[in-house]
Amino acid sequence: MFSKNDWKNRRVLILGLARSGTEAAYLLHQLGADVTVNDSLAFDENELAQELQSLGIRTVCGSHPPELIEEKPEVLVKNPGIRYDHELVQKAVEAGIPIITEVEAAYDAAPCDMIGITGSNGKTTTTTYIHEMLKGSSRQPLLAGNIGETASKVVRQASSDHVMVTELSSFQLMGTVNFRPNVAVLLNIADAHLDYHGSKEAYIEAKAMLFRNQTESDTLVYNADDPIVCSMVESAPSIKIPFSTKKKLADGACLFDGWLWLHGEKLVRETDFSLPGSYNIANGLAAAAAAAAAGAELEQIKSVLRQFGGVEHRLQHVMVWKERTFFNNSKATNVPAAVTSLQAFTQPVILIAGGLDRGLSFDGLIPEMSNVHGLISYGETACKLLEAGESAGVPERHQTETLEKAVELAIDVSREGDVILLSPACASWDQFSTFEERGRTFIHAVEQATGKKAGNHT
After folding, report:
1. What CATH number should be reported for the domain whose range is 105-307?
2. Is 121 marked as binding a ligand?
3. Intervals of CATH 3.40.1190.10 along the chain
4. Phi and psi (nearest 5°) for 354?
5. Which residues of 91-115 are buried (b: 16+ CB within 10 A; e: fewer)?
6. Which parts of the chain are coiled coil (predicted)?
7. Which residues have a Cβ under 8 Å from the Cβ of 376 and sit 6 or more positions away?
8. Is residue 124 a known part of a binding site?
9. Running DSSP on this structure, what letter comes out for residue 210?
10. CATH 3.90.190.20 spans which residues of the chain?
């Protein structure tokens, strides 16, 4: 198997299994490394560890013995979710052992180009956009990273005829050394994961690892509307392509005069763009610039910008029924995310919101509900949300227990031309195990109430 380095008999300790650790173990074992995996779950209950041991991979489960570091592994591969103040990680730092994440191992084994996408918001949508835009090009795109299968798994299917389109978190990027995507996309920077990184400066530094190793032959697509991003990329040696929704760019991707442009050429009219909200236009522009740099056909880029229906549970277009348009934004697990979705629409909205009560205020929604003429609240937070709707002057306000009933009420109070939007502003755990389950329940409830399958336009 292809590798940029020789892993034969190198002693590797993998800390934490889950998907990333397990796939890194498979990959490095395949490359000939002497792999030890360490996971907190006891071996008898640990199916992943049992599978790895059946391949001859050493497993240490149930605790994190310091002896694993005293054995002096040459590399520690850390699950991205494990903090750097973990006992074994600290011991590895003190011993001078390199600490990487599975993304670095995947890059080392990649026989093809890689596109890396990061930012505080919009990563999944932009990554999916790029993947769709590259379909039908000279190299088949493979989707990897946080969005689906881990990069270490995807790379085992890759050949020189592919290009890996990889969504990357700051946690993953922190554990990179030689990682160098041929095309890098930096979307935006906001206050995020400061509990993990310790400071905004450390968070920014982790994000900057995306393009740290790029050269003048690589491409960096960046947000010209974000001052922090502009400062970060200033000294990057790569070919820099800006994108903007606020100003005309002669060279780059922009929204100007009612059109989306790329390098001075019109792509699609703003009115033909398929997703609502200026932030989705920004994601589309970034994706168009990156996909074009990676060899996508211009007509395919245009087609995707017109037809892309969004990522599941992230302002996902569900259907149009009797001139009502349904959107699933179950991923909005807090007030700021719900605010962003409300800002995406100029037409009247029936908002469905509710979920786990964390004791937080919903006052942040009040200024953003000027175009909400119906609020259906449900779950633990139903009363609090109803109070916010009353303060905002929402004329139609109803409370119910379940999401299914909320969908029925939303349809009852809706009018032609309305958007019926699930944007809960709450975690799902009062009634659902995940936001994905909540989103699927919403879609099913819409299908039941309308008698139509999702995706239909009638």
Report:
1. 3.40.1190.10
2. yes
3. 105-307
4. 150, 170
5. bbeeeebebbbbbbbbbbbbebbbb
6. none
7. 350, 351, 352, 353, 398, 399, 400, 406, 409, 410, 413
8. yes
9. T
10. 316-450
Residue written as token pair 């199916």: 47
DSSP string, 333-373: -SHHHHHHHHHT--S-EEEEEE----S---GGGGGG-TTEE
Rounded to an integer, what distance in angstroms lies between the CA atom of residue 243 and that of residue 220? 11
The DSSP bridge partners found for residue 59 are 37
d(CA 108, CA 182): 13
Alpha helices in 36-150 (DSSP H): 47-54, 67-70, 87-95, 102-109, 123-133
pLDDT tens digits for 353-405? 999 998 889 999 999 999 999 999 999 999 999 999 999 999 999 999 999 99
Q: Stretch 198-213: mean pLDDT, rounded?
A: 90
pTM: predicted TM-score of the whole model, two decimal places: 0.81
* C-alpha atoms less than 13 angstroms from C-alpha of 379 in its C-beta half-sphere: 21
**Cβ(158)–Cβ(111) below 8 Å:** yes
Closest CA to 185 of 275, 288, 264, 274: 288
Instruction: Tell me the residue type at 335.
Output: V
Q: Does domain 11-100 have CATH number 3.40.50.720?
A: yes
Burial class of 351 by CB neighbour count within 10 A (0 to 12, 13 to 18, 19+): buried
State yes or no: 101 annotated in a binding site: no
**Beta strand 75-78 pairing with 99-100:** parallel
Assign 120 to helix, strand or coil: coil
* 120 marked among binding-site residues: yes
Name the CATH superfamily housing domain 316-450. Answer: Mur ligase, C-terminal domain (3.90.190.20)
